[in-house]
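REVIEWER CHECKLIST
Item 1: Sequence provided? yes
Item 2: Single chain? yes
Item 3: Sequence as submitted:
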Amino acid sequence: MKFDANKVMGQCEQYRDEMVQFMRDLIAIPSESCQEKGVIERIKQEMEKVGFDEIKIDALGNILGRIGSGKHVIAMDAHIDTVGIGDRSEWKHDPYQGKVENGVIFGRGASDQEAAMVSMVYAGKVIKDLKLEDNYTLWVVGTVQEEDCDGMCWDFIVKNKVIEPEVVVITEPTNLDIYRGHRGRMEIGVTVKGVSCHGSMPHLGKNAVYMMSKFVNEVEKLNERIKHDDFLGKGTVTVSYIECDTPSLCAVPDRAYVHLDRRLTAGETEDSAVAEVKEALKLAGVEGKVEVLNYDTPSYTGYVHNFKKYFPTWILDENHKLCQATVENYKAIFGKDPKVTRWNFSTNGIATMGLHKIPTIGFGPAHEIYAHTVEDQVPVEHLVKAAAFYATFPMTYSNK
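Item 4: Structure as written out by the authors:
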């Protein structure tokens, strides 16, 4: 079965105003991690309006909408939680208004990444309108807590068999390009213990801050030694948080702690990254505890899904059927060759493909440079074009 690209795009254009309003509605509902209930309910309302075959909300609070019941189970994922707004005075536009100006919608979550949910929901409408159902089951998934702990939501979905997709499309912002992977990451905690004493006699103690400063210096050096990959780029490590414990501001601190943000390039693993940190402690001449951190914050439903903060690197081979189908669909819809590259940041792909080996690829509206910024935005045109892509991709893949 073939589709008429012009007819699909034209049908999506008919829903431009409705997509803009839905986008503005989502932006208007604050939905930071663990506080997504309101935006989930709004998405459910829109899925019902456009005629999804089935809609369910799982125990963690993810929303899943189904179109079709064919053999090939395809999932499209958009996390619908956002980061906070930071200093409100730095925003040119109200972060919760969804201001539309010169064909662009502004507001928190516009790029990262509620826009894709808007496009996916209306792709479902277009599939119904144009009878584009085929031998596939499409699940449109709105996931929670990604900003707090990317991948945890999909680890829950897979382990609990909420759905069992054959492939996953991650709809994080790609500027309407195709992304086939990204670096992994880890959150590592390092603690050193000293000996406290009165601040007037520091020589009687062992200052944990001084000890930690030697280690931090080695972390900076370690960053320069980390390997590089031609596709994913260089791995990195940086100190992202530091604290100390002291009995008094007139005492020598007896404990210091740093949080390391470690980005993993191809070939790097949890074990190799931890070994490098331990080596840095050794080079600093300092003893310390190194641990990969754990996430156990309850979702808005109260459910806790424990998840170790190791987020594996993943790359989909260019010759994989999923990549080829994505490129083929892009050409059919847009009439040109796509740019195929990778994200700079991390996504739920670390769980779908990194941990659970489900073939995964990325395509989404908006540009990732606006994620987490006070210029958070998405072009209206992207909503329409992404909807056309999402409406046709399942047919292209299932016939590949």
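Item 5: Key structural point noted by reviewer: Residues 127 and 332 are 16 Å apart (CA to CA).
Item 6: Recommendation: ____
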